[in-house]
Amino acid sequence: LMEVLEHEQDLPSRTPDGHDMPLMVNTGLTVDAVASLKSRIGGVGLYRTEVPFMITERFPGEQEQTRLYRDQLESFAPLPVVMRTLDIGGDKDLPYFPIEEANPFLGWRGIRVTLDHPEVLMVQLRAMLRASQGLDNLQVLLPMVTNVDEVDDAMRLLDRAIVELGEEGVPVNRPKVGVMLEVPATLYQLDALARRVDFFSVGSNDLTQYLLAVDRNNPRVADLYDACHPAVLSAMARLGDDTRRLAMPTSVCGEMAGDPAGALLLMGMGFDALSMNAPSLPRVRAAIRRVPLESARELVDETLRLDSPGDVRRHLAERLGGWD
Ligand code: PEP
Ligand code: MG
After folding, report:
1. Which residue's CA is the nearest one to ligand 1's atom 9?
2. Is the beta carbon of 206 within 6 A of some atom in ligand 1?
3. Alpha helix (H) residue ranges in 58-172
C-alpha cells in the first residue's frame, strides 16, 4: 500500500471533484529531509522555534537564530514558512530556563512568557526579520494568545524591531502575522483578532486539551483526550464557518490535520490548508485524492449529529476505515 501511496506523492492534493487542499509541513529541527518534499507541499505551516532552543545550552543569540531561520526560509523559498515565536512552558521546558508551576498548561506558556521577557522576543523577531531579507517568505505566528492585548503588544515589538533594523541599515519588509487559535477564548473573539492579524492557525492539540479540560500528556486521562469528542468537532466546524465568513486564511496545524479522517473532516469544514508532520503526508494526500469535497461535507454533517466520541469513531470507521 505504501508503494502505491508513494507513487501518488507527486500528484496534486486535489479531490476527485477538483478541490485543491494545500498540504503543508510542520518542522522543528531537520530541515534537509523535509526540504526534499518542497515540490509536493504548499510550504511550512508551522515551524516550532522552541525545538532548536531545546538542544542548546543557553538562549541562542541573534546571529545563531538568524542562521537557523535563514536555513528554514532558504530551504523552502519561495514557499511560505510560518515561524511560531517561542512556545515554551506547558510540556516544553528549556533546561536553562526552568519553569516550576503547579498547573503548567494553565500557566506561564507561549506568548505569556515572551511578553514578560520582551528582550527574548525582540531577539527572536529581529533574527526572523534579518533571516528573511531578500526572500520575503516569512510569516510570524503567535502561540497561546488569550487576549487581543497580547497581539497588540507583540505587534508593537515587531514594529520596533523593523524600525531598529532599518536604522541599523538592514531594511526589512513587514511579514504577515498570524495568531494560533488554541485557547478556547479566541473562538469568541475572532472578529477582534481578525482586525489585527493576517491569518489564523488552529492548534487542535491544545484546543482539544483546553475544551475538554484534559491534560494532553497525562496517561490517567488519556482516554478522555479525544479530538473525536463532539464538542471538539462542533468547535472546529464553527471555526471553519466563522473564519470563512471573515475571509481569514485559516489552516490547522495540530495532529488532527495529519490523520486522514481528521483531514477529510477539516476539508469538509472549509479550512484553507492542513499542516502536518512529514510522515503523515502520503496517507492524507491519498485520502484527499479519493474523497470528493461534497462527500467530506456530508461526512461533517453526519458526524456533527452524533452524541459521543465513540459514536463518532464508529461512524468514521464505517465510512472511511477509521481514525488512528
Ligand atoms: C497545537 O497545539 O495543536 C499545536 C500545533 O501546537 P503544539 O502541539 O506545539 O502545542
Ligand atoms: Mg499548541
Report:
1. 48
2. yes
3. 62-76, 111-116, 118-131, 148-167
User: Which residue reads 469535497 in cell numbers?
Assistant: 293
> Which ligand has the minimum distance to the alpha carbon of residue 201?
1
ipTM beyond 0.85? Answer: yes
The string of pLDDT tens digits covering residues 227-249 is 999 999 999 999 999 999 999 99
The Cα 91–Cα 85 span in angstroms is 16
Give me 232's grid cell.
471538539
Q: Is 295 close to ligand 1, i.e. is its CB under 6 Å away?
A: no
* Backbone dihedral angles phi then psi of residue 108, each to the nearest 5 degrees: -85, 100
Residue 208 Cβ < 6 Å to ligand 1 = no
245-285 confidence digits (pLDDT tens) = 999 999 999 999 999 999 999 999 999 999 999 999 999 99
Element (H, E) at 240: helix 230-245
DSSP code of residue 94: B
Residues whose beta carbons lie less than 5 angstroms from ion ligand 2 = 182, 203, 206
